[in-house]
Amino acid sequence: MKKSLIALAVLASAAGLASAQSSVTLFGIVDATVNHISNSGGASVTQLTNSGYNSSRLGFRGVEDLGGGNSASFWLEAGVNNDNGSGANTNLNNQPGAANSVGGGGLTFNRRSTVSLAGGWGELRLGRDYTPQFWNMTVFDPFGTNGIGTNLALTETSVPTAVRASNSIGYFLPANLGGFYGQVQYYLGERPNNTPNKDDGTGYGLRLGYANGPFDVAIASGRTKYLAGNADQSNIAGQWNFGVATLQAQYEWDKNTFYPGAAGANLKARGYLVGALVPVGPGQIRFSYAQYKIDAVAGTDPEAKKVALGYVHNLSKRTALYATYARVSNNSTSAIAAGGGAGNPGAGSSSNGYDLGIRHSF
Amino acid sequence: MKKSLIALAVLASAAGLASAQSSVTLFGIVDATVNHISNSGGASVTQLTNSGYNSSRLGFRGVEDLGGGNSASFWLEAGVNNDNGSGANTNLNNQPGAANSVGGGGLTFNRRSTVSLAGGWGELRLGRDYTPQFWNMTVFDPFGTNGIGTNLALTETSVPTAVRASNSIGYFLPANLGGFYGQVQYYLGERPNNTPNKDDGTGYGLRLGYANGPFDVAIASGRTKYLAGNADQSNIAGQWNFGVATLQAQYEWDKNTFYPGAAGANLKARGYLVGALVPVGPGQIRFSYAQYKIDAVAGTDPEAKKVALGYVHNLSKRTALYATYARVSNNSTSAIAAGGGAGNPGAGSSSNGYDLGIRHSF
Amino acid sequence: MKKSLIALAVLASAAGLASAQSSVTLFGIVDATVNHISNSGGASVTQLTNSGYNSSRLGFRGVEDLGGGNSASFWLEAGVNNDNGSGANTNLNNQPGAANSVGGGGLTFNRRSTVSLAGGWGELRLGRDYTPQFWNMTVFDPFGTNGIGTNLALTETSVPTAVRASNSIGYFLPANLGGFYGQVQYYLGERPNNTPNKDDGTGYGLRLGYANGPFDVAIASGRTKYLAGNADQSNIAGQWNFGVATLQAQYEWDKNTFYPGAAGANLKARGYLVGALVPVGPGQIRFSYAQYKIDAVAGTDPEAKKVALGYVHNLSKRTALYATYARVSNNSTSAIAAGGGAGNPGAGSSSNGYDLGIRHSF
To answer: How far is B186 from chain C (nearest CA, A)?
Structure first.
């Protein structure tokens, strides 16, 4: 998720509208991975994928100083599938269904498209943005919800707002609150008020945290409304930097994560993750172990366990080589693949995979 | 429609191909709006939309000095729906039908994609561009055909070339003609000559105006051919800047605007708009009143009336806050919504709405 | 295919991650053409097209110096249909079928999306890239596989990997091998290993050449696997620069180019092209003659002949006007159009066409 910043020199235009304090930044990441997944129950596949370490993207952003400590800014960031050149879809209204997921393989600013006003009072942000509950999950994950080692709890989630929400209005607390930080977000499904599903896709989330020196902890929770009920996601997560290693942990409790039409309503689920980031010379060892269990209405509760181990070798601040291995073990009613959807194993199977990749940022 | 220019510094490349006189400009607008529409007959909806004041966009343009007063230039400009990150569709051949409207929610250079040669003799421009008849309508509209206050006559129009045309060849008169200005445009539907609808999507438009000091007036007319007849749009519009206020007015006469397959052929329509822009400190009050009436073949002629009032508060030349209120009153056979298509009222209903937004340009 | 380089000034960012030796380049071409095609058997059509001289595009690329002669780089390049503002589709997995061709008219990085490591040992390149066999064909074609004069052998080819391959891993020999150059490429169809068509879309290609002063020659060959067989493309091509003219020639031998589902399996085809580029003041005359014949299983072998003549007038290094005329003559079982697919003639017909265009690069 880290990006190098490249500030493009800005000259005063003929109209004199651009000031020296303003900047527009072109930025991005191109991350390519040789990925292999094999399942105990059957299929294996070798692919060239993207975003094994950091999500591939192309973005444009800028900040304008308004004076008095205030600023205006914009951020337009598109997901790029650099293995084949296609773009990533975005979602119009936070609702499921193919008609609401648009892009068709063309570029969209699915990752973020916002305009903000900020000052000593905090930041007001409008547009498509990460949900607070996702942000808390990815920040304290050694694998940053990317690649074969991605967060197990995220893999199990399929609501459209699991990562981002469209039509959102967000507020972020200012810095310098003695270590406290936080945000609230409200997003609109944009349905007319006289329809039965008038709240479909409407929801909210919040995050509150405290960071002090080596210590950082935060709690987040969000709810998206659907015709047949709510999808709730909550988590508490944190890290402690001991110098020789940063330890990370998170605990998730979700409800009805599988929204209506999927496996069933009113499901509860619990999961946790423990991990570590260990600096080694110019590189970093990454490790995580996670469990996720769904409280099924009947029968055996589906449960998956995941272990992931990786190494990142930095050739520079912008360019890295990396390797990751991961294994998911499923119980008799669980069918989760290492790395997410691709190469889905049968229920009760284990799934193994690795990434060998290059990450280049600009 | 105004944009701040950000000239990116251009260094001579290793190949020495770029000259100091040339520039490439990255530009755009991110405009987000909390929009609410309610209709007397029923539904209301609250949305986060885009382009309430100026159309959101991302563009790339540049000019090369060819010497002798001549230049070459390009302009690639994509519409951006920054509320959800998607892009806007473009039209392949100026014809109606879903197959001709492409993009699928991905970014396209739907707003403009042109290459030009220009000199003392004027400008030759090839590609996708605004039609002259639309340009005349938007320039003299206090709300610039954007947001809840958008031009009523444009709302009533549904031909693919109402705003822009693809495959166009345009010529613009040079500046310094004593205040006279003008353009002609011809666009191709690109059908083979041995098909019954060989002219579908082919058309032309022209605009001629005169500006002198506070005074500016222009007339424009365009025709697009379809299998079952022509769609004609014409208007005359102007403004006078009195210092304390700029008054604007326009009159439109359209024919068969509802092309075959829509409400009926050979319909004639008449409309007008009067408006004002009043500078108030760092801001501007905007007002318009418009009527549009269709001369129906039988029954009561559909007629709509619209009033819009707004205020723009400039935080800087690039960033503004704005609020707009608009109301459309429909007679018994008209069903036009404030702000256009969204939240369509029943025939005879009124439609009210407002925008509260931020416009940031770069 | 030549592009002018515009290096954007790069300032050190606040985070200090960007170094002075690094650069990000925004580049592109906007090429618009008035194109007319008429066939002896019937239809004619006049269009505004794009890429008559050079392929229209918008791209972002950059190089990072890693020290020790090594570097990392990225290249994201999108095809742009500037006549109507749409983008070009890309292919997910090198397989035929509409579901694998994505973009929907939105922008994709279909032309190239790669990340590379390079050094004295050569270059490793991952992503979507040209195939070696196509590269050899376009480099030694006076019309560069663009516009009405485009390479006849390419027009006859319809495999998804005829020009580029997704999910590719490429290696390029370093420069300074005494004039020898070369590359190998392997690309993945990404099918699970337990499916009947597990190799669909997987393939490889290589190219080896030698250049010395005015002389340049290279051979290339590639194979893509499909369920019902292989599609092979091979060619040998070269040029000699005599000063007053550069002569070019190529010979192609293809097998089963029409992959299963098209005209038939196990077809063999042979073709050749001879051409010349003649500098004339600030311009260049271009000429080519080509034949292509398919060894049909039964009946008359389809055979087409093409002649193309054009002139490019450079207004600057970045901007050119051009005109091209081409004629394809088909025998009784061939139905190839001048310029490719548009305005397809009947079998045995001839097809004539011309381009009149502007090419502007940045």
So the answer is: 11
